[in-house]
Amino acid sequence: MATPPKNKLFFGSFVHSKTLAELEYLHSTAIAVDATGKIVAVEPGHATAAAAAEALLPKLGWAAGDVDTVATKSDSHFFFPGFIDTHLHASQYPNVGIFGNSTLLDWLNTYTFPLEASLADPAKARKVYTRVIRKTLAHGTTTAAYYATVDVSSTNLLADLCLAAGQRALVGRVCMDQLSPAYYRDESPAAALASTLASIAHIESIDPSASLVRPVLTPRFAPSCSAPLLKGLGALAADRPDLPIQTHISENKNEIALVKELFPPSSTGAPDDSYSSVYDAFGLLTERTILAHGVHLSEVEAELIAKRGAKVSHCPCSNSAITSGAARVRWLIEKGVTCGLGTDMSGGYSPSVLEAARHAALVSRHVAMGGDDKAKLTVEEVLYLATRGGADVVGLGGRVGAFEVGMEWDAQLVGLGTVDAEGGAVEEEDGNVDVFGWETWEERIAKWVYNGDDRNTRKVWVKGRLVHER
Ligand code: XAN
What we know:
Layout: E1 7-17, E2 23-33, E3 39-43, H1 49-60, E4 67-71, E5 77-81, E6 83-89, H2 104-118, H3 122-138, E7 141-147, H4 152-165, E8 168-172, E9 174-175, H5 189-206, E10 213-215, E11 218-219, H6 227-239, E12 245-249, H7 253-262, H8 265-268, H9 275-281, E13 289-293, H10 299-308, E14 311-314, H11 316-321, H12 329-334, E15 339-341, H13 353-369, H14 379-393, E16 411-415, E17 417-418, E18 434-435, H15 441-451, E19 457-462, E20 465-469
Parallel strand pairs: 1-4, 6-7, 7-8, 8-10, 9-11, 12-13, 13-14, 14-15, 17-18
Antiparallel strand pairs: 1-2, 2-3, 5-16, 16-19, 19-20
Helix pairs in contact: 3-4, 4-5, 5-6, 13-14
Xanthine binds next to helix 2.
């Protein structure tokens, strides 16, 4: 029989985003997490874990025997909120790194559709999905907004596996009824809607309270959806205002030209021929919508997206790898658009949101080199996008992404390598980050952002449950 979940007391250093610009450092602090995974106390100012327990447990009415304590070992260990990957294709994981010199539209036909179609084989889907969940958890991703495939059973399997592994996830069956090979598409708009409803019903049956896993409406992108399909999905979105929506937008210039050709305003009733107006005309541009990429959005589109409250998943690794362009994140934020980060595997080649944060910092410097110096994103800002910003993007703002009373404990324990007096490594698994001991905490975090990887992710919890340990 499974052991019932216990109350937990975490002690040591905690780092999280207070605002876009500011990280908060809480040292000698205790955070109490109840058996449901909720943070019930955040108390700085205790010399040791034992002193924190002595002060805190009576106030919470917890007996010492009912509490598991996890304390950080040293000055180079800290708790950080779990990362939120706001956009990735679980089904494309075996292709990471395989993109040659392709760009979006030929990349889809050459590499992506054949692999996705092959996951209709349940054994292959199980193998791929099991691995991608393990890998992303190992990189500290506690929430993932996944695209699966067109196939209902393998999409449902992805949701089953996320729930079993304890990863928080949005799981979307991909809707696409045109402009893809005949072997990989929905047969008709009606069939696409029926399959979508079947997948939603399954995901809601395995996690009725959406404690971890939720379905998400997933029109792949405008070019691969007919107008009747987009219309049907818009109607479904209006019927089910609790369901999130995810899709792609304005990633690549040829893709944008294709959208203009396929959806002239005369066919949609939209006021102009922009990509955003197409989604808006079909009722798919809402405050629940996650728009991946947004590289080439116009002023008017950014204003419309902000007005509708739709969110943008910035995917800098993918945008560089398949040569889509450099998204202007500072500009989007200043327009009032909520942004988070996506690995976008396998347009992006890395499963790591930390890597996405690093790419976000570097791509913002390329935007700056184009003449807009204030485009540069700081370490604090990219970490905000990876956590709190991402939570807002996937509709979990206020629930995960930081350490506050009432939020859920989705967290990672990060350990940096320490260097001893002779220059040797003290930690066995010290990765690329060497801490000499004289760095400020701000410098330690910067070193982690620019050189850290999964070797630094020692433990990961979702909703209070330990889901990964190195
Ligand atoms: N547009 C896309 N962009 C991307 O990066 N990955 C995809 O799978 C995709 N499909 C449409």
